[in-house]
Amino acid sequence: MGILKSITEWATNPWGQNVPIHIAWFLIWVAALAGLLFLIVHAIYVRYFAKAEEYADDSSPTLATALPKRIPRHSLAARLFHWIMAASMFTLLITAFLPKIGLQFDWVTYHWIAGSVLTVSILFHIVHASFWLDFWAIWPDRADLIDARRRVLRFMGRPAPPPRKFAKYPLENKLYHGAIIATGLAAIGTGVFMLSRVRTIFFPRNPYLFSDMTWGLMYVLHGLAGVGLIALVTVHVYFAVRPEKLDITKSMIFGSMRREFYLKHYDPQRWTVRIQPSDSISTDRKA
Amino acid sequence: MAGGLDSFDWLKDRIKRPKVLVDLSGIAELKGVRTTSDGIEIGAMTTLSEVVRHPLIKEKYSLLAEGAELAASPQIRNQGTLGGNVSQDTRCWYYRAGWPCYRAGGNICYADTPTGRNREHAILHAERCVAVNPSDSAPALIALDAKFVLRTPKGERIVDAEDYFIGPDIDITRLHILKPGDLLTAIRIPSTWAGSKFYFEKVRDRNVWDFPLLNVASAMQVSGGTIERIRLSVNGAAARPLRLKAVEDAVRGKPATAATGEMAGQLAVQGAVPLQFNAYKIPLMRNLVKRAIGGVEEAKWAS
Amino acid sequence: MADLPSERQYGVGYKLIGKNYVTADLLAKVTGRSKYAEDFRAEGMLFCKLLLSPLPHARVKHIDASQALALPGVRAILTADDLPAPADTVTDNGTVIKASKWGERGLTMEPVYQGEPILAVAAVDELTAAEAIERIQIDFEHLPFVVDPLDTLRPDGPNPRTDGNIWVTPSGAQGPAVAQLKWTDADFAEARHGRLPIGKTPDEWSYGDLDAGFKAAALVLDETFVTPDVSHQTLESRSAMAYWQNGKVYLHTGTQSTTQTRTAVARWLNIDLDKIVFISEYTGGGFGSKVTGGVSMIIPALLAKKAHAPVMMRISREEETFIGRARPGFPGRMKVGFSKEGRILALDMFVISDNGPYEAQGDAPTSGHMVSLLYQPQSMRWRGVTVLTNTPPRSAQSSPGGLQGIAIIEPIIAKAARRLGVDQVAIRYINCPEGKARYGPPVQGQLQHATSAFIKEALQRGAEQFKWQERVARSPKRIGSKVRGVGVSLSCYVGGTIGFDGLLVITPEGRVRFQSGIGNLGTESVIDVHRAGAEVLGIPWERCDVVWGDTSKHLPFSCVSGGSQTTHAMTRASHAAAMDARQKLQEIAAKSLGGKPEEYTVANERVSRNGHGSMTFAQAAQRAIELGGKYDGHEAPADINKMTKASIAALAGQGLLAAARDNYPRDGMTHSYVASFAEIEVDVETGKYYIVDFLAYADVGTVIHPRALGGQVLGRSILGIGHAIGQKWVFDPQYGAMVSKRFHHNKPPTILDLPVNMQWAALDIPDPETPVGARGIGEPPVGGGCASILNALSDALGDGIFQRAPVNADTILTSLEAGRPMQHPLIAHI
Q: Is the pLDDT of residue C610 over 80?
């Protein structure tokens, strides 16, 4: 409870009970600073300390020539989902936190609409990813863990074989996705119930679904997830604009990436691109 | 603190506990009514009784005198100030009981729930919070196109009466734009509407010592039976006194009749959302707006 | 209007009775010099504050007061554990009534309503005490609660007390008991249509052939109506101050009875009567909420004992809303069968009384009694249930049960008159009581009867004075948005009890001193009733003194000023004492001057025998002291109350002491009656209405003090009007919390809510069953005040507008807008 007390605000409810009402808003600054700090540290690290990436050789010249010039990476549906999610996420963060730091405007309507859009798009994504995409592509596998260990050892100057190239998603990407799942679902899971506390088109307003304490904790969780997302989104945007990752970013816009980039960073064994005459067919369908 | 009638409640209930309380009653320049080159200026600390009794206000800006006279009770008007009346906090009984609602910094509105008791709450522009502004002088000042003079740490600032007030969509914890360190020093009424055709009506449960269920104030300039210019304001319907601009636009150039009033009333309540116990405010607002334009027939009874 | 009260002559043939005069307490009151409980100060006095329960029902598991006690200036904390066990009640005939285990005790470890005091802190000042209260930590166990009386009757409804939800009176057992009652889902089916469901009830009585009555009826109406819970809101809250001196507790607080409050305090504190000095010279209103003060007064008394210092407990208006009592609201339903002339042939009445969490109130049964007497139905059944809820405690409020019954039936009668095409005054005329009218409930198979009733005449004269017919005939009824409506209502209540004591002293200075044990709650009866005694003795009022307001001044056993008893009961007692004085004067004169006592007459401050000398009151008093024995109080009559005996013993030797119990016979039960008339003007565009004119015509027996009577007739009419035009409670059911807890939320009527020229008049026909002919007046006007307004409203707006009181702009506008009644009648406390 000690830590909870220091990062939350409490109030006395009509029955004289102390209940949490939301997070302490200073956490907004904490999260923003944490995100910023990460990117500064990372940028400095990459600029001054990082060694050139070294991968276990797996290149197959025959494959290279067989591949199309542009490697399909994200289907239109996946890209649409990503950008809808991004738009709603930005809307949610802006509408949630700008008023808290003093910029006042009518935020609730935008917030609940964006939240609803996000919820629907994520539901779509879950179904889509489960049944149409390679569901497991985004989860860390055994190889990721072995490679991660190798990289850490090498980073510390200990002998270890070079890691393999990546599957479709690097481990960092997968971990990030995991973090987004956790915070995003926390925010949405609480947010869906919180819709009943305001006027929406969905159901009659009823703030009495749960006890004041349960609600309070829900608001705190929502807030924690929200500020967590500030940090996560900051980091995400940062990587998206890093020059060495631009190919990935572009692929989220155009759907495909350069063959060279693919060959340099990805392991065709782990991210198989079906060779077909046409480029138009996405590769992230189930094999 | 002005007259203290709003503040003392909070203090006696031990809900608000300011570290410092500044009594403004000793500042002479905040009191009194002065004529200016273009109308009058009323010090924010002028009592409602003084406003009601002031000959010039009675003669030219009687709308304000009417509104001020209908506020509260004689004792309260002797102590309460015009600045305090426009700046007073809402009377939502949940909020005033010290419950941790949105307006108190919490995350709930107790009045707008399936069982909330809300006969005195908002029908318009509610956003999470459904409290209403209880001022009787505010709509009169809006109709008179008054300017509020603010002293802020950055210097003097003058705002239109209707811009002094804010709804919960913008700031859910305040009814007006005053920030810590700001002071409402005076209210200026331009001569534009002096001597216009005024209408003020307040509907309340008791005939004295009661907040409005709704009130309406209008200033109209009519020539040849046609409305040339009009300003119209309603309070008690939302968290801020509403200036009904759309209604003003719609009736300009129309005859000042019951039929125009009828149309204006319909327009005024467009978008109104009733709560469980305040649906009456919709016909009430419709009718008050109607009367503010078309007038009301005086009943002369035999015997 | 003709026949203004100022023009009416009362007291014809009397010297004092029926005349206006200035009471001895008036000057102090109007100049602010009168001292109410809160005005007293004592050396070293502490102040106390209460910790009120935030929960509507809970058990206190643990109290941690360490931080409060550590605060400088905090002297003592009192919790329910410090309260003495309340003593059993021993009635005058020796019956022991066990203290109820469900009774209210002032502080509690199981709060049963939000706002109930749990503990009290005494400190050097109020701010410190308030600070201390906030430092106290309490662990609560939450318990089920209910604020809507219907909710607890539902099959799965919560119980407001751990052992039940209604009061029952088991036969043979002592006092009422809490029991559980649940209705079936089938019973509740009707609630969906806005009709009060009728399930099993613990209490029922009937007379006549109900079925035959309904069968013969030309019109049968079956209506649901809900009356409001209304706080008493006396202007003086129940502040109290107490200190201990030489083993005695001195208590200052407001009360409706000086002498009987002492008995109550003795019971609450469980100490002997002679250890209590109770002081209450002025009381700022009671209306039934301070019949014997309030149990909360023991808090400063016990804190004073614990802290060894005087303690003042000032009760704020908000606290008063919680602990200051209120009238039980009634959801009620009535089926009434009318003949085509409007005579009530059958009446089936059903009421639920929202009793709050504590002591059983008699409102439900009384409502049946009043309706039965006032409308004389040829056959009637009454059913009722007194339901407990977790809302502030109720007590009798001016016309308890009477107001509710009248407010429920009157709109039905008004509707019936419209349906039948019968005039509103006429339909009441043919139904109202006359003479020794009979009424239910039957006692041992027999209907009871009233001492007298002249309300037919009051109704007729009132209609004339109000120009009823002219107003009804006026056309148009509507001009623009304004509609006028007229309403008339009958009203009645119990108007007196018997059997109390009178006590007076004729001093050697020749003055007559009346000892008055009556509470001084603003009605003036504390003084007025002694005009009856003075009239008997023929002594000018200037030669009379009245002693009141302090039990150390040796007061006689008097009635409580509740139930409109005082004027009746205490004029009788005063009359009896004066007759005793006259007898003693005659005896003393005969002993001194010869002859037989009955040859002497008492007049002009002398006792004289025609042509054979006389003696003054002063001389007779001196002689009484010399004679001793019964003449100067060394012997007391055997049949008087022990409290009076103690006072006589203390006063013995001061002069001629006269004391007597009121043993005058009485055939029937005393009631007073009022016919109330109102005209209102509604603005159908705003829902706002004004009362244009009002008249209350009273049948209260002999008029004793016109100005005080007028104050009561109109004042209590206004109390009733408050129920029609705005007073109510509003509860948030989710938290079981009252949201209308501020004084301005309670909305007692202001003077501007009333017509400028309110009128009253009284028949001034003596009641045949009491020597002075005077009956009580406190309650009778209340129901009529409320119902005449309701009837005027339905006259103006039609029948389908409201099904509950009060009626405000919200009700009127939503119903007019929808063209049907829109406010759900059965949601409590909206």
A: yes
Q: Give the contacts of C679 (CB within 8 A, at least 6 positions apart).
A: C471, C484, C485, C486, C487, C691, C692, C693, C694, C792
Residue C586: is its pLDDT beyond 70? yes
Q: What is the mean pLDDT of residues C807-817?
A: 95
Instruction: Say whether pLDDT at A66 is over 80.
Output: no
Chains that touch A (3 or more CB pairs under 8 A): B, C
Q: Do A15 and C54 touch (CB under 8 A)?
A: yes
Domain range enclosing B71: 31-192
Beta bridge pairs of residue C331: C226
Taking contacts as CB-CB distances below 8 angstroms, the residues of chain C near A16 are 54-55
Domain C39-143+240-313: which topology?
A: Aldehyde Oxidoreductase; domain 3 (3.90.1170)
Burial class (CB in 10 A: 0-12, 13-18, 19+), C515: buried
Check A219 against B171: CB less than 8 A apart: no
* Closest Cβ opposite residue B206 in set C134, C750, C816: C750
Q: Are residues C517 and C550 in contact, defined by beta-carbon separation less than 8 angstroms?
A: no
Give the number of A-C residue pairs with CB atoms closer than 8 Å.
11
Q: Which of B116, B287, B299 sits opposite C686 (nearest CB)?
A: B287
Name the least confident of A33-37, A44-48, B241-245, C244-248: A44-48
Instruction: Compare CB distances from B284 to C480, C813, C822 and report the shortest one's residue.
Output: C813
- Global ipTM: 0.96
- The CATH number of the domain where B157 resides is what? 3.30.465.10
- Give yes or no: residues B204 and B187 share one domain: no
> Is the pLDDT at C278 greater than 50, yes or no?
yes
Helix/strand/coil for B198: strand
Q: Nearest 5°: phi and psi at A94?
A: -65, -45
- The CATH number assigned to the domain holding B269 equals 3.30.390.50
A284 pLDDT above the threshold of 70: no
In a domain, B4, yes or no: no
Q: How far apart are the first and last CA of chain B?
A: 50
Do B223 and B187 share a structural domain? Answer: no
pLDDT in tens, C612-635: 889 999 999 999 999 999 999 999
> Is B2 a domain residue?
no
Contact: B299, C681; criterion CB under 8 Å: yes
Q: Which CATH class is domain A60-265?
A: mainly alpha
Looking at the fold, whether B91 and B186 belong to one and the same domain comes out as yes
Reported confidence tier of residue A285, pLDDT bands at 50, 70, 90: very low
User: pLDDT tens for residues A140-183?
Assistant: 888 888 888 888 888 888 888 888 777 778 888 889 999 999 99
Q: Let me know whether B206 and B165 are in one domain.
A: no
Q: Residues with Cβ < 8 Å from A94, sequence gap 6 or more?
A: none
Which residues on neighbouring strands pair with residue C223, listed in sequence order?
A: C334
For residues B181 and B55, state if they share a domain.
Answer: yes
- Chain C neighbors (3+ CB pairs < 8 Å): A, B
Give residue limits of the domains in chain C: 39-143+240-313, 501-661
| In chain A, domain spans | 60-265
Asked whether the beta carbons of residue B203 and residue C810 sit closer than 8 angstroms, the reply is no
Best probe of the B interface among A199, A220, A222, by most B CBs < 10 A, is A199
CA pair distance B197, B219, nearest whole angstrom: 6
Which one of A13, A14, A207 has the shortest CB-CB distance to B113? A207
Are residue B63 and residue B171 in the same domain, yes or no?
yes
Please check whether residue B23 lies inside any domain of the structure. no
Q: Is B276 within a domain? A: yes
Contact predicate B66/B140, CB 8 Å: yes
Topology adopted by domain C501-661? Aldehyde Oxidoreductase; domain 4 (3.30.365)
User: CB atoms < 10 A from the CB of B300, how many?
Assistant: 8
The CA distance from C490 to the nearest CA of chain B, in Å, is 26
Number of domains in chain B: 2
Q: Do B126 and B64 reside in the same domain of the chain?
A: yes
- Cβ contact, residue pair C726, B203, below 8 Å: no
